[in-house]
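# nightly structure sweep
# worker-07 picked up a monomer target from the shared queue
# config: single-sequence mode, recycle default, output format = structure tokens
# input follows
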Amino acid sequence: MKSICVFAASRTGTSTIYIESAARLGRLMAEQELRLVYGGSKLGLMGETANAVLAHGGQVTGIMPTSLFLAEIVHPGLTEFIEVADMHERKAKMGRSADAFIALPGGLGTFEELFEVLCWAQIGIHRKPIGLLNMNGYYDPLLAMMRHSIEEGFTPSGSMDLILASDDPELLLQQLGQSVPVNGYPS
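# output follows
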């Protein structure tokens, strides 16, 4: 594993634990020489993660559609910045550029990115590990909803195997590195 795509909010949330964990993840990625691939913003948890990677000598690739330049405020200090036409191209480029995915807390955009890579894994488009940095129990309701969907027969029972979750950035990186890819269409 050489690069990780991180999905995260362009806001910092209501607790300092979100900022601290995003920064810790960034520091650990830099120390482990893992390139950060992300949305390119200097704001929120996206910016906190990128700043920590850069501050500790790591490499960061930001990918952003032109239409978001003003709204997300492009990070000026990235190792590499890639301008794309739209969100579809952004997500495709981020997916191709990474060996694994991590979702930090975020809103609708983060959820959408996370579920897209989960769906891609489920149908066999990729076999890359997917992790949730579940700080402060942020993703507990989402994990419960996924289990509920399985119980109600709408999601294959093996779908929980597609996702790793931890509140500890170091443990999550370790889990991703040791992950055995799951073939699509879990039972």
